[in-house]
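From the methods appendix. Each design record in this collection lists the tokenized structure first, followed by the designed amino acid sequence. Records were kept in a plain field format so they could be parsed without special tools. The example shown here is representative of the layout used throughout.

RECORD:
FOLD TOKENS (138 positions):
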């Protein structure tokens, strides 16, 4: 998403809270930073080489694994099975989108051309959420 935001001149820190309708803390994992740095070393493309500089403005979230994992595995491990910390995923990577869609309660934001979109929850995600709320007292 950092690459796409550079291409579209989209400031994630300013615009994401507007899209979500609430304040947002932007986090990046150590594995993601490693992947961005490695990709930026291998290319002349400004959107790729500038992505680590965009991501450095976000809060760094330490990973619990020793060796760097692929980004989608790292983020899936961070979120867990039931997303207890209420993380959302902002990405343009299809694999990561699919991973986030499998976990109920994970908001997914991506850029469609130059517009940020918040994906509507899938039917099964809504059912899981309603089921978890049925037993809780409000």
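DESIGN:
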């Amino acid at each position: 998403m950092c690459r796409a935001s550079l291409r579209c001149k989209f400031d994630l820190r300013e615009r994401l809270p507007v899209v979500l309708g609430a304040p947002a803390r932007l986090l990046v994992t150590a594995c993601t930073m490693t992947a961005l740095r490695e990709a930026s070393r291998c290319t002349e493309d400004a959107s790729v080489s500038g992505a680590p500089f965009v991501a450095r403005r976000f809060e760094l979230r330490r990973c619990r694994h020793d060796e760097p994992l692929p980004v989608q595995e790292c983020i899936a491990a961070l979120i867990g099975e039931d997303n207890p910390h209420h993380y959302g995923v902002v990405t343009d990577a299809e694999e990561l989108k699919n991973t986030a869609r499998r976990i109920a309660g994970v908001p997914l934001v991506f850029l469609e051309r130059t517009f940020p979109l918040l994906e509507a929850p899938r039917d099964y995600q809504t059912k899981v959420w309603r089921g978890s709320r049925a037993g809780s007292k409000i």
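APPENDIX NOTE: The chain is about 50% helix and 10% strand.
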